[in-house]
TrEMBL record:
Top-rank taxon, per record: Eukaryota
Entries under Pfam families matching the protein: Glyco_hydro_85
Domain Cytosolic endo-beta-N-acetylglucosaminidase TIM barrel, first and last residues per copy: 3-159
UniProt-listed PANTHER family: CYTOSOLIC ENDO-BETA-N-ACETYLGLUCOSAMINIDASE (PTHR13246:SF1), ENDO BETA N-ACETYLGLUCOSAMINIDASE (PTHR13246)
GO molecular function: mannosyl-glycoprotein endo-beta-N-acetylglucosaminidase activity
A cellular component annotation (GO) from this entry: cytosol
Organism whose genome encodes this protein: Boletus edulis BED1
Name under which the protein is recorded: Cytosolic endo-beta-N-acetylglucosaminidase TIM barrel domain-containing protein
Length: 516
């Protein structure tokens, strides 16, 4: 017990052995409620530095054989997803896609809600997904916490940086740090609708799939396949993607990266938009939306950026970010199918005007510390810890600013004193390496020939990456040393240019590293 005490004191919940039987819950509750406070002597009158533990803080995985709710007040832990994967590993026909289909069905139900889901011996009635027992809430206000998603479930087979595939694996990878919203309004059941609701015509249908063969920043895209019935009139489709709660009268900027694919005889015009989640306010002036900026990106991607402000009379407004899609076709009576692949979506406070100085994020102070045993072992000489710092750099004083008098009150820089403007925030860092054959070659190493070896986040550390042989490319043991590259990705999904990134060189058997 003495070894478990530090963990118990730090924990806000306690998980019991999951072999507890339902009939033992009474004795377990009695035992827990009679525990004396830790941190005090025999008396309970003195101050306690340990918060009380309630029954709700204890998770029990006991099986409940009847629909009657236990009055003991224990919380519940679900072992279904992990157990099904462990049990299925013995089945040679089991694969990740099949497991993912079962996982999605457990939490969200079948893709078609009208499909029957058989449940053996179910006195509680028809099957209900876990989501049916919880209220869906939007993410935090982007004014306080930038909203960013690359539509990742936290697993994939590949990794992409600005549309370029930098890693491809057969067994795949998993990293809960990379998990983000998959679009709560579009996955797994998108709900496209006609913008011109007065027309009594069939609505489009759509399906979604996590495509792990392509991506922008991350390991996959969220690909939507939309089918529009034949129509004698051109129409606009509204496709909601993600719900948000916004503070009204505060300017925000949204940026989406996507790909659109359609048949040759179909023309698509799509642009990002924002609408109310409910119809409580019908005033069209509830939003002020600025001009849409469109930019073509490498590898077939396109970005769109808009500025908007919610002008509702309420303090906060629940909205849906999505796409308005105009479909123009040569044969109006034929059904048409097209796809939309979503790479990333970010919503954040509108950047300040050009008159305000904004810092440029960069990475500095990169260091490599080899493991102690690696200093004397050639085979492990590239095993160690990469660390670095981040900084914000302001441009030189504008030549138009004339400060002739030392007592002048004219500021050299006009700063917007907010945390977002003061210092950069990063979502994660990409790590690359290249062989260091000699000092001259390393000094002129081409970043285009570097090899991607991983990202931060797996160990819960922000500015730290552990280098081990398993992540290094083949042939690393023949290198004289290595040059490591640290590339930042901001919380808005922007990849830093190489000139703003950091490098560090390490030679085998060397006790120091050189950073830039």
């Amino acid at each position: 017990m003495v070894y478990n005490l530090p963990f118990f004191l730090a924990a806000d919940t306690l998980f019991t052995n999951y072999w507890w039987k339902p009939e033992t819950q009474d004795s377990m509750a009695q035992y827990v409620t009679n525990l004396k406070r830790a941190g005090s002597n025999a008396s309970t009158d003195g101050p306690s530095f340990v918060p009380d533990k309630a029954l709700q803080d204890i998770y029990s995985a006991a099986t409940v054989p009847s629909p009657t709710t236990s009055p003991r007040g224990f919380s519940t832990a679900l072992f279904g997803p992990g157990w099904t994967w462990e049990a299925a590993t013995e089945n040679p026909e089991q694969n990740w896609n099949e497991w993912w289909d079962n996982e999605r069905k457990l939490w969200l139900g079948p893709l078609n809600l009208e499909d029957f889901t058989p449940v053996p011996d179910s006195p509680e009635g028809p099957f209900k997904p876990m989501a049916a027992f919880f209220r869906d809430l939007p993410p935090p206000d982007p004014l306080r916490s930038v909203f960013y998603t690359n539509f990742s479930p936290g697993v994939s087979y590949s990794w992409f940086v600005e549309g370029k595939k930098v890693m491809d694996t057969k067994k795949g990878w998993s990293d809960i740090d990379k998990q983000s919203s998959i679009g709560n309004l579009v996955w797994p059941r998108p709900t496209p609708s006609r913008q011109d609701v007065e027309q009594e015509e069939a609505v489009p249908t759509a399906t979604t799939v996590l495509d792990m063969t392509d991506g922008y920043n991350g390991g996959n895209t969220l690909t939507l396949t939309i089918t529009c019935p034949g129509s004698e009139s051109e129409g606009t489709i509204w496709l909601p993607v993600q719900s948000l709660t916004l503070t009204t009268r505060e300017s925000l900027e949204a940026r989406v990266v996507y790909k659109a694919t359609a048949p040759n005889d179909v023309s698509l015009r799509s642009h990002i938009d924002v609408k109310l989640l409910s119809n409580e306010e019908v005033d069209s002036r509830v939003f002020t939306i600025g001009k849409t900026t469109v930019k073509d990106l490498p590898h077939g991607w396109t970005s769109q950026t808009i500025n908007f402000t919610a002008t509702s009379i309420k303090h906060t407004t629940s909205v849906a970010m999505g796409f308005l899609i105009d479909v123009v076709r040569t044969d109006s009576l034929a059904n048409v199918t097209f796809s939309l692949s979503l790479g990333q979506l970010a919503v954040y406070p509108t950047p300040p005007p050009q008159s305000v100085s904004v810092g440029t994020p960069s990475i500095t102070g990169a260091k490599f510390a080899p493991r102690a045993h690696a200093l004397n072992t050639n085979a492990d000489a590239l095993e160690g810890v990469l660390t670095w710092d981040t900084t914000s750099t302001f441009t030189p004083i504008d030549s138009d600013v004339q400060i002739d008098d030392p007592e002048s009150i004219t500021p050299a820089w006009l700063l917007q004193d907010t945390p977002a403007s003061r210092f950069p925030t990063f979502a994660y860092f990409n790590i690359y390496t290249a062989p260091l054959q000699d000092a001259a070659a390393a000094a002129h190493a081409d970043t285009g020939s570097t090899v991607f070896i991983g990202t931060t986040g797996l160990d819960g550390r922000a500015n730290r990456f552990y280098v081990e042989p398993a992540c290094l490319p083949r042939g690393w043991d023949t290198w004289d040393g290595a040059k490591f590259y640290i590339q930042g990705v901001t919380d808005r999904g922007e990849v830093l240019p190489w000139e703003s990134c950091a490098t560090v060189e390490h030679r085998k058997h060397g006790k120091s590293s050189t950073g830039a």
